[in-house]
Sequence to fold (390 residues):
Amino acid sequence: MWVLLGGTLLTRVAFFIVWPFVAIILQRRFQLTPSQVGVILGSAALSASVTGFYLGNLSDRLGRQNLMLAGCAGSIAAFLLLASANTVALYAFAAILVGLCRSAIESPGSALMSESIPDQDTRELAFHARYFLANIGASLGPLIGFVFGLATQQGTFFLTAVAYTVFGLVLARGFRHVPIRPRGSDDGAARLSQAIRAVNNDRRFLMVILATFLTYVAYAQVESTLVQYLNLDGGGNGISLATTVLATNGLTIIVFQFPLLHFLRRYDLHVRTQAGVALFVAGFLAYSVLPIDSYAGWIAATWVLSMGEAILFPTLNLQADRMAPDHLKGSYFGAITLSNLGFAAGPLLGGIMLQNLGGRTTFLLTALITLLGGVSYWQSSRMRGAAVSD
Fold:
């Protein structure tokens, strides 16, 4: 568990030094439009989404170890390619490989954490800790990149490749000292077709997937569309403002996630989810009316949205963990990655809206999408209530 948590911190710092600024690199180097940038960034999320369920089920049947190590190796290759690519096609291919390999690490890793910690409260704390460390990386990465002038440098991807090399080596050593028994048919792991049927029959879980998809579509605007908007309309201060917004997002998670967990743990997951959605909506509505030169306003709006993220996002793995049968942990954690299609559709949709409607209308429509996600979460809660009463 400590290897997984430490690897999360290391790789997220290296990843966020440059990845949030890929849109700017593509705009400056290849003169791409916002919608074209959205296609490339969306490709990474799309590759993770369409393969996550299969890779999660594969880890149920074949074990977590080999899949996670292969994901590290593929990530190294992908970031080396990003560091040296000189065409748009190579960038797009590398982005797809990044998403694929991330899925090969994340879904089996989540299932491994769930299986290794029998106590539910401790397991919840571990998932929060993993998300917490990821956000330390999301906060420190852009700041390091901006301060040292690495943020918009293509060669910075070499650092990310080095980070995944270290993580892969330490992970391999950890598996060697604490071997994870390969799973097989004796564990009752379902074949892919059986897993698909089981998930398809779980309508409440499908509603959670839909709701999470809509939430991710909205949140993708922060990582893609918002950065482009501030860069295009913010003049010479665009990059510094975008860096400030991203750092505010990560720092808010770092400071408030565990106090919020302590305050809200008495409440049901669905109550926490609705509170997070409400803060998301408020943040995007603020984005839609803020003047571009209002530093304080952008920081305040991002703080509100980030408070919603601190509440909402850690609950998603917990929902998958509580809904999943023991023999389908990997499949359910893989299935929830179908929601990542929101991260694929979000940049493309946001780029099209930004290009044709402008920033204010884009963020207003994003607030509406978030609201629809909240309605879907509420419907899932109602279905659970009906199941209990039956």
